[in-house]
Write a structure and sequence with these properties.
Helix content is 20%, strand content 32%. It is built from eleven helices and 24 strands. A hairpin with a 2-residue loop joins β20 and β21. Pfam families: MPI_cupin_dom.
């Protein structure tokens, strides 16, 4: 690692994140949240944050860098940027932490997204680690968690998600519904849950689910793009290639990816809906656990709400920061960084001590912090 990169491992790095094409439309809520001019929906409804993962989109293999985040190099007069992946690979221990690099080499072992949907996503499932290793030769599955930022009512329907099989669903029934492409019956097989700002859900590998229309949320997940879909046509009528549904493993194996653990709504919410807990309180702010190791070993997520000044000491690990609301300043040993709603930062392992300061005590600075496996 050269001296310039060494210094980069000790300061907050401002990210240039990539908007990613998906099989569903959205993005207006995302762009409005980031204060972009003329926000609108498109085929690019997701912002991949601090991503070293290439997006997997059947038919878009030409977009080789799709999904990869870049880092704006501080002090560069011409706006030079480098991919976060390249920067981490120059010295994984300094950017990710020594123990993390020993376990995962140059992989951050997580992927963070902000997404906004103007239509329901197709019913889907992601592999658990065992299935991912067997079917995709991947050490990571795709357990994920959602933190709801807000939403919008679309065609009279408030934001919602679909979660888990209802008690009547069996593997045989699910196969028949898939083969017949009985979409109304598939939708009726899953629990429908309205969501509100601040809700937290954990979606383990193997759990059938779909994000409904009108959802704006942060998603933290394992670092893969392995999504298996049972709807061969999207809600707006786009026919999907077979590979976009089964990711190359065939439809029979795709159906094996589901965990057929049918349950009532109460039990499903007990397994999936997380109650946040206060982690630390100071005069100037409060940090709250959203996802803890007791919920999953795959990642962690906290929310920081600052009305004055909040001191933070970080271990030898990295974090991904998303400014959810408000404005302020992040102070560190060699400088400071202005913060505004929608900003995204990579906080390297070498950055240990920092101070978060809100610009206006009447408008809290709210930051979501995403951490790798502990």
């Amino acid at each position: 690692m050269n001296d310039a990169n060494k210094s980069l491992s000790q300061i907050p790095l401002r990210l240039i994140d990539d908007r990613v094409w998906r099989t569903y439309r959205g993005g207006l809520g995302l762009e409005a949240w980031r204060r972009q001019h003329d926000p609108r929906d498109s085929d690019y409804p997701e912002l991949w944050v601090a991503s070293t993962v290439q997006a997997v989109n059947a038919g878009r293999e030409h977009a080789a860098a799709e999904g990869l985040s870049q880092v704006a190099l501080p002090g560069s007069p011409d706006g030079t940027a480098v991919t976060l992946k390249e920067l981490i690979e120059s010295d994984p221990a300094r950017f990710l932490g020594a123990e993390h690099a020993r376990r995962y080499e140059s992989s951050p072992a997580l992927l963070v997204k902000v997404l906004d949907s103007c239509e329901r996503l197709t019913i889907q499932v992601h592999p658990d680690p065992d299935f991912a290793l067997e079917a995709f030769d991947s050490r990571f599955g795709k357990t994920e968690a959602w933190y709801v930022l807000g939403g919008r009512t679309i065609d009279g329907e408030p934001p919602y998600v679909l979660l888990g099989f209802k008690p009547h669903v069996t593997k045989e029934l699910w196969r028949r519904l898939f083969e017949e492409q009985d979409i109304p019956a598939m939708l009726d097989a899953l629990h429908k849950v309205e969501v509100r700002e601040g809700d937290v859900f954990l979606i383990a590998g193997g759990l059938p689910h779909a994000i409904g229309s009108g959802c704006l949320l942060i998603e933290i997940q394992e670092p893969t793009d392995l999504t298996l879909r049972t709807e061969r046509t999207t809600p707006r009528g786009v026919r999907l290639p077979d590979r976009a549904c089964h990711q190359g493993i065939g439809f029979d194996r795709m159906l094996d990816c589901f965990h057929y653990e049918a349950a009532c709504l109460t039990d499903t919410l007990f397994r999936t809906k997380i109650v946040p807990e206060v982690a630390d309180h100071q005069d100037g702010g409060t940090e709250t656990f959203l996802i803890q190791p007791k919920h999953t070993e795959r990642f962690r997520m906290n929310r920081l709400q600052v009305t004055g000044q909040y001191e933070m000491a970080k271990q030898d690990e990295f974090a991904v920061a998303i400014v959810v609301a408000g404005s302020g300043t992040l102070l560190f040993a060699s400088g400071e960084a202005a913060l505004g709603t929608g900003d995204t930062l990579f906080l390297p392992a070498g950055l240990r001590h920092m101070t978060w300061r809100a610009n206006d005590p009447r408008e809290a600075l709210v930051v979501v912090l995403c951490y790798p496996p502990k």
